[in-house]
Design brief:
mainly alpha, 21 helices
Length: 488
């Protein structure tokens, strides 16, 4: 796609700050939500510490990827089951840090293997006919979160009021992006979320004055906690870092070697399963910025950055990090791929995690407002995957089988569950529907192409697909009888 700012561009200082703020707002709600969910499992986690961890993890990622991959790393939801399992078995704060270390090392080890063996196999194992629907699935699988937030505002009660607020947020983003001035088109999320926030605030104040509970869609609890008793911590507070909590808990005395082995069994499989989304995210981002990130900076370096960044982030914030679809969607919609913007956003998250009013403000954004914004963010992810399929001939039944197997298993939510965890009541290991869809796609691709790995199934039908040859600059050879007629 056409970018306003390329990866290596340096926008003016003022614009860079605004772009960074937009990235921060896009990723912050989900990043702060993960530690809140961890706290509900029985282990106190500080959202501000997770914000700091996401920031420093992103800087580590930028360093490993040689400043060539413009994406923010935020708290991963995939590990929530692992957090619940380790907390349920009383492994404490250190148990989570050790677990994320194991998961991160999976990426590092795979990265070392790829560095030695090369990554050319990735494009053959995951051609456009596979990676396109996989990327589309990432956006579609997140869509339920966006609509639930709009309809229920993060709770369970359906509300037309919150749908209205979410819809206004979305339409404000659309209008800003399509009909706004040149500068407004670069910050549609700030405009949209700002409009949604103001409307939510007005409705809540009216509902409070009129005593109508259904109109009280905004919570001021984060401000109450910060300012109920005015003190220095109401303005500046050092986040409750996870490693500090682990030290106070004396986690090394809690964990035995057997416990560490159990932690590895919980977290290592998740690291392996997440590899599929890591590759899909980078193929998608590369498609958006017109660069092959699998080749440069290389899949090994993106894995190093993601793995080590996740480990470092968990030491401070407790949450494993991952490349964020919201960040990729933000790049796609605004056309701003400047790596400087991502770096400033990371630094901003680290600095602002110490400022209580800012964290309180972000925590006060209603989920319905973020849901409206995510309709655009997740939608662009899904559409970018569909754009990859433009390169694929869907008149070819081979390709149709591959794409259909991925979409049906992925959208249908087919998972593979192994074992039973008595502490949580769930499975010991769950292979996500995205990973299952990828497996189905790869196996189907091998079956229809007689066990061969190729860039596109249509390459096996060059006689039937002259456009495939033409795309490579090859003129199909006419049949002998036609050549004879031509000479006559």
């Amino acid at each position: 796609m056409k970018l306003v700012y390329e990866v290596s561009d340096r926008p003016p200082f003022g614009k860079t700050v605004v772009f960074a703020l937009q990235q921060m707002i896009a990723i912050m709600a989900a990043t702060l939500l993960v530690p809140m969910l961890v706290s509900s499992f029985g282990l106190e986690a500080d959202p501000a510490a997770a914000l700091f961890g996401a920031g420093i993890g992103t800087l580590v990622y930028i360093m490993f990827t040689k400043k060539k991959s413009p994406v923010f790393l935020g708290s991963s939801f995939t590990f929530l089951g692992a957090y619940a399992a380790s907390i349920g078995q009383n492994f404490g704060y250190l148990g989570i840090i050790v677990g994320v270390f194991f998961a991160g090392m999976v990426y590092v080890i795979i990265g070392l293997i790829i560095k030695a063996a090369g990554s050319s196999w990735v494009n053959k194992l995951m051609p456009a006919v596979i990676i396109g629907p996989i990327v589309a699935l990432i956006g579609l699988s997140l869509s339920g979160t966006a609509t639930d937030w709009m309809a229920c505002n993060g709770g369970t009660d359906y509300s037309l009021v919150t749908i209205l607020v979410g819809s206004v947020t979305f339409f404000a983003i659309v209008i800003s992006s399509v009909k706004g001035s040149e500068n407004i088109k670069l910050i549609p999320f700030i405009v949209g979320i700002g409009v949604g926030y103001c409307i939510a605030l007005a409705i809540t104040l009216i509902g409070g004055a009129a005593g109508i509970e259904g109109m009280k869609i905004m919570s001021f609890d984060s401000f109450d906690q910060a300012f109920s008793t005015i003190s220095l911590s109401s303005f500046i507070k050092v986040p409750d870092f996870f490693f500090v909590k682990a030290i106070h808990e004396k986690g090394w005395e809690i964990l035995s070697w057997a416990d560490i082995g159990s932690i590895a069994l919980i977290y290592v499989p998740i690291g392996i399963v997440e590899l599929a989304q890591h590759i899909a995210d980078h193929k998608n981002l590369g498609n958006i910025i017109n660069k092959d990130l699998i080749s440069d900076p290389g899949l090994d370096n993106t894995l190093f950055g993601d793995g080590v960044g996740s480990i470092v982030g968990s030491i401070f914030g407790g949450a494993a990090n991952t490349t964020y679809g919201e960040s990729i969607g933000c790049v796609a919609i605004t056309g701003n791929a400047s790596i400087i913007s991502i770096a400033v956003a990371a630094l901003g998250c680290m600095i602002l995690s110490f400022f209580t009013p800012f964290v309180a403000l972000i925590n006060s954004i209603p989920k319905c407002v973020m849901g409206g914004a995510c309709v655009a963010l997740y939608g662009f992810i899904a559409v970018s995957g569909l754009q990859m399929l433009r390169k694929v001939d869907l008149n070819n039944s081979k390709n149709l089988f591959i794409v259909s197997s991925i979409l049906v298993t992925g959208i249908g939510g087919l998972t593979l569950q192994f074992g039973h965890n008595e502490m949580t009541g769930g499975a010991i290991l769950t292979v996500t529907s995205l990973a299952v869809a990828l497996i189905f796609g790869i196996v189907t691709n091998l079956i229809v192409n007689n066990g061969k790995l190729v860039a596109d199934a249509s390459e096996f039908d060059n006689k039937k697909q002259p456009e495939a040859l033409a795309a490579k600059g090859v003129t199909p050879t006419a049949p002998r009888k036609d050549r004879k007629k031509g000479r006559k």
